[in-house]
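note to self — DONT lose this again. spent like an hour looking for the file last time. sequence + predicted structure for the chain T wanted, 65 res
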Amino acid sequence: MNLAQTIKQRREELGISMDYLAEVATVSLRTLKAIESGKGNPTLNSISKLADVLGLEMKLEVKNK
């Protein structure tokens, strides 16, 4: 599951609207809509704020090719 799907699914599981999530996470609604549609290029700060509100844990992984 990708980032967009994870955020949208968790938001829906919690039964909260996009407007509410954007407000509580202090992320613009436009940014949230772009993220959930898979068209956004969110900053790490925005992702962190959303993850915190949604009760998700972020993990940064660096892979060797």
